[in-house]
From TrEMBL:
Gene3D superfamilies: S-adenosyl-L-methionine-dependent methyltransferases (2.20.25.110), Vaccinia Virus protein VP39 (3.40.50.150). The lineage of its organism: Bacteria, Bacillati, Bacillota, Clostridia, Peptostreptococcales. CDD domains: AdoMet_MTases. PANTHER family: GLYCINE N-METHYLTRANSFERASE. It comes from the Bacteria. GO terms for molecular function: glycine binding; glycine N-methyltransferase activity; identical protein binding; S-adenosyl-L-methionine binding. Residues 35-133 form the Methyltransferase domain. The keyword Hydrolase does not apply. Pfam families: Methyltransf_25. Keywords: Methyltransferase, S-adenosyl-L-methionine, Transferase. This is Class I SAM-dependent methyltransferase. InterPro entries: Gly/Sar_N_MeTrfase, Methyltransf_25, SAM-dependent_MTases_sf. GO terms for biological process: methylation; one-carbon metabolic process; protein homotetramerization; regulation of gluconeogenesis; S-adenosylhomocysteine metabolic process; S-adenosylmethionine metabolic process; sarcosine metabolic process. GO terms for cellular component: cytosol.
């Protein structure tokens, strides 16, 4: 699709590496850890964690994203394990491995539109963690979205790169699905070029994730409103989950 072809080109300009995200993840693991990045995108966090001395596995369903990751890793002379893989298959494909940390950020988990699929992926993550391992998940705060009837997210604009991402939400109450409608705008010398896309998302609520984690067996669960570790509440833009196995 034209949208994803262009989106992949501008991914790093739209979603640059966040210092608070990297600090949050790296502070949860000991030195020389084994880490799995689920839905890694172009792998900025995977590469940064590899540069810190960790052994990193990175998976993404999009072959173009993994291709970019491999090119960047090669340019930086960073060694990591990059795989084109559906997150629903990590339990099978990575079964021999055991990780200190598995993270899935960037609102990626809710691209699974069935709560049973979300449960299965989190259960697979639990099984892939070592006894003291930690899982980190970040989604949009859907408590806030649904209770306040929010129909858009802030537009991301990088004027230096000449790119803009417009993000709108349309909640389908009957299906309990949010249609995530995006418009990628490339600002050219003459006139902007736009690419449109729409994907369904599951609006995962805080009470649902707590119930799932308890059912699966996580022992220590914390929720934050951002990667600066501020309190999670209805006004928070994000929901950050930190869950420990042991």
């Amino acid at each position: 699709m034209a949208f994803y072809s262009e989106f992949n080109k501008y991914y790093d300009e739209i979603f640059p590496t966040g210092k608070s995200q990297l600090r949050f993840i790296s502070s949860r693991v000991p030195k020389n850890s084994k880490i799995l990045d689920v839905a890694c995108g172009t792998g900025n966090y995977s590469i940064a964690l590899s540069e810190m001395g960790h052994e990193v596995f990175a998976v993404d369903l999009d072959e173009g994203m993994i291709c970019q990751l491999n090119k960047k890793a090669e340019n930086k002379k960073v060694k990591l394990h990059a795989l084109v893989e559906d997150m629903k298959s990590i339990g099978e494909k990575l079964r021999p491995h055991s990780f200190n940390c598995i993270y899935c950020i960037g609102n990626s988990l809710v691209h699974l539109t069935e709560i049973n699929d979300i449960y299965t992926v989190i259960k697979d993550i639990y099984n892939l963690l070592n006894q003291d391992g930690v899982m980190i998940i970040q989604t949009v705060n859907y408590d806030r979205i649904l209770e306040s009837n929010i129909n858009h997210l802030p537009t991301i604009h990088n004027p230096e790169a000449g790119v803009k991402l417009v993000r709108r939400y349309q909640y389908d109450k009957d299906k309990h699905i949010i249609n995530f409608n995006t418009q990628l705008v490339i600002e050219t010398e003459f006139q902007p070029i736009s690419y449109n896309n729409s994907v369904p998302l599951y609006p995962l609520r805080s009470f649902e994730i707590k119930e799932l984690l308890n059912k699966i067996g996580f022992k220590e669960v914390k929720l934050y409103g951002d990667f600066e570790e501020n309190e999670f509440n209805q006004k928070a833009f994000s929901m950050i989950i930190e869950a420990r196995k042991g």
